[in-house]
């Protein structure tokens, strides 16, 4: 279980980016975080694996606090938390399977990892996962030759091979066409159930969030304004969440 | 709470696979990278082990070097020439570099327009490009020395030598920028029946002005370094000549230090202006 | 008030101003530097005819050919060696100093300062200082080129790392990979082609600069040219220039081919 308690963050003094974020997620749940640009969605997501250092609160993964972990402990937590990026963040010049295997680096000794020595079992698992995301034929292709949707599926396979408890998706479909977006969202939903993991995704597309996510968290000006099952999301709530006039008044 | 053991995933293959799973296909680009790195390292190894050290004791030489550097950077002084002479010489070198950059930019732009693949016929374009490649291949200092045979050692040779290299360099840089322009921009003006040079100044010039400014300032920085070098190696005057005299004839390293500080000040100033200008033009 | 009409008028004045500025820079500097423009233009055809005459091999200059090529190849190898050693140093320093992979901001500032310092000391100064301590040896040329290249390459490599590796770096950091794993598995494979492209460019550049260093320090091809030039053996000097042209262009073509394959 992932619990976030009283999470705070500000980039500049007196201009909080996040104030008092609280939520907890059970395994097997697909959560979408929605809200206008600049509301703090990315900040929340990146605080969860401490790529951004927040200013206060608790982030508990099965009871252990990431925020107070030392460097080695943090690496231990990070390998249990997969991450999927908007721009895929693959090493474009390496092959698909090499990029998937990068997800194993956190489990390896520094030396074995530096020189990319993977066991046959790990390679086999990488192939199994590529099959799962439908890319087994592309294993030996360079990532630079793939389409955006395919790259994102490589990114998902890379996060799965970490054996994660949580997968964080930072705008996973923002750079994709509608058809690929559907594929990727369906894949994330299926994998969440199949591996009984927590999947948290920042999304701009409200429609897709409603269709695929189990639960939706709405963020506005760094505050949670909505946290319900996805079918509870109504037009009125969306209006308050995205209303331009209200935004200007608050500024 | 779920466990994080591996058995959640389909780990065991149904039948043990006899062959190892490959991570890469052989690719030309990979072999090329490995080949280039290996051959560079081999050449380096060979060269360093066969270096003609002319019986110089390296340890002693390094100690000497440290002493020289100490004299230069910690105790700089204007020496026997005095600050006024040094500043004058610095000004001459700077002026030389500005002038040759201006010549290089004007002539280089005209040639670049004529050499760009999207503007001109292939024959004219490629002959200019080949000619410029030959000019670029001759080091600046040798151009200056060649010109000093035909018009005597001095300003004329220095200006011509530096300009030649600048022209060749800027022609290449500018024409690469011109070739990046979207063909439709040019066609839009062509269909209005505009004359060639009108298109150049109304469509091409404004489109690439930022990269023109950027390349010109890079060349100005190079030309300043070259002006110093030419002064020293060809005796063409300026701060480079003062540097040569102080370090190679009078061995006054305090003065060398002062000269180096002056040169660094100018190069940092040029770099600063270049960064500011680039920002200003990108903002537009 | 900014109207289209006076905007265009102002633009027109700006253009005229630029032309006047360029013209006056030219005239003012010709006057101060005592540059004779007409004589200068007249000298250009003379220079080319000089090259034309002296590029023709004579019985005398063919005689010098083996020693010219021996020195030239030596110079190219020296340029390669100094660039490679400089690159090895520069990549380490650049990893330490870049915003993406680097240490604390203090380390980054120090690295930037050092790189800028080495870059801005003129090559001539390095050559002359080193000549004083290391005498007339290949080692002097090697060190001068090395010190100069290090400054340039550190800056270039840092920019490459910051441009090309920051996203993958982040992704691997998020998997829990350690620092060295990230460097070797993500950063280096990602930047390798750009790195090699820069190294090749630096080699081309160093071959040209080696001529200058050679003239100053009495080594390599620069020294050979200087001797022929000063003893008025222009046919041999012309042969040297021709050889340099051939080698530099061959290197340029070769590196362009390599770039095409690896990029």
Automatic annotation (TrEMBL), chain A:
<feature type="domain" description="ABC transporter">
    <location>
        <begin position="2"/>
        <end position="246"/>
    </location>
</feature>
<dbReference type="InterPro" id="IPR017871">
    <property type="entry name" value="ABC_transporter-like_CS"/>
</dbReference>
<keyword id="KW-0918">Phosphonate transport</keyword>
<keyword id="KW-1003">Cell membrane</keyword>
<dbReference type="GO" id="GO:0005524">
    <property type="term" value="F:ATP binding"/>
</dbReference>
<dbReference type="InterPro" id="IPR050086">
    <property type="entry name" value="MetN_ABC_transporter-like"/>
</dbReference>
<dbReference type="GO" id="GO:0016020">
    <property type="term" value="C:membrane"/>
</dbReference>
<protein>
    <submittedName>
        <fullName>Phosphonates ABC transporter, ATP-binding protein</fullName>
    </submittedName>
</protein>
<dbReference type="Pfam" id="PF00005">
    <property type="entry name" value="ABC_tran"/>
</dbReference>
<dbReference type="GO" id="GO:0015416">
    <property type="term" value="F:ABC-type phosphonate transporter activity"/>
</dbReference>
<keyword id="KW-0547">Nucleotide-binding</keyword>
<dbReference type="InterPro" id="IPR003439">
    <property type="entry name" value="ABC_transporter-like_ATP-bd"/>
</dbReference>
<keyword id="KW-0067">ATP-binding</keyword>
<keyword id="KW-1278">Translocase</keyword>
<keyword id="KW-0813">Transport</keyword>
UniProtKB/TrEMBL annotation, chain B:
<protein>
    <submittedName>
        <fullName>Binding-protein-dependent transport systems inner membrane component</fullName>
    </submittedName>
</protein>
<feature type="domain" description="ABC transmembrane type-1">
    <location>
        <begin position="90"/>
        <end position="274"/>
    </location>
</feature>
<keyword id="KW-0812">Transmembrane</keyword>
<dbReference type="GO" id="GO:0055085">
    <property type="term" value="P:transmembrane transport"/>
</dbReference>
<dbReference type="Pfam" id="PF00528">
    <property type="entry name" value="BPD_transp_1"/>
</dbReference>
<comment type="similarity">
    <text>Belongs to the binding-protein-dependent transport system permease family.</text>
</comment>
<feature type="transmembrane region" description="Helical">
    <location>
        <begin position="85"/>
        <end position="112"/>
    </location>
</feature>
<feature type="transmembrane region" description="Helical">
    <location>
        <begin position="224"/>
        <end position="244"/>
    </location>
</feature>
<feature type="transmembrane region" description="Helical">
    <location>
        <begin position="28"/>
        <end position="48"/>
    </location>
</feature>
<keyword id="KW-1133">Transmembrane helix</keyword>
<dbReference type="GO" id="GO:0005886">
    <property type="term" value="C:plasma membrane"/>
</dbReference>
<keyword id="KW-1003">Cell membrane</keyword>
<keyword id="KW-0472">Membrane</keyword>
<dbReference type="InterPro" id="IPR035906">
    <property type="entry name" value="MetI-like_sf"/>
</dbReference>
<keyword id="KW-0813">Transport</keyword>
TrEMBL record, chain C:
<dbReference type="InterPro" id="IPR035906">
    <property type="entry name" value="MetI-like_sf"/>
</dbReference>
<feature type="transmembrane region" description="Helical">
    <location>
        <begin position="236"/>
        <end position="254"/>
    </location>
</feature>
<feature type="transmembrane region" description="Helical">
    <location>
        <begin position="178"/>
        <end position="203"/>
    </location>
</feature>
<dbReference type="GO" id="GO:0055085">
    <property type="term" value="P:transmembrane transport"/>
</dbReference>
<keyword id="KW-1003">Cell membrane</keyword>
<feature type="transmembrane region" description="Helical">
    <location>
        <begin position="12"/>
        <end position="32"/>
    </location>
</feature>
<keyword id="KW-0472">Membrane</keyword>
<feature type="transmembrane region" description="Helical">
    <location>
        <begin position="76"/>
        <end position="98"/>
    </location>
</feature>
<keyword id="KW-1133">Transmembrane helix</keyword>
<feature type="transmembrane region" description="Helical">
    <location>
        <begin position="139"/>
        <end position="158"/>
    </location>
</feature>
<keyword id="KW-0812">Transmembrane</keyword>
<dbReference type="GO" id="GO:0005886">
    <property type="term" value="C:plasma membrane"/>
</dbReference>
<dbReference type="Pfam" id="PF00528">
    <property type="entry name" value="BPD_transp_1"/>
</dbReference>
<protein>
    <submittedName>
        <fullName>Phosphonate ABC transporter, inner membrane subunit</fullName>
    </submittedName>
</protein>
<comment type="similarity">
    <text>Belongs to the binding-protein-dependent transport system permease family.</text>
</comment>
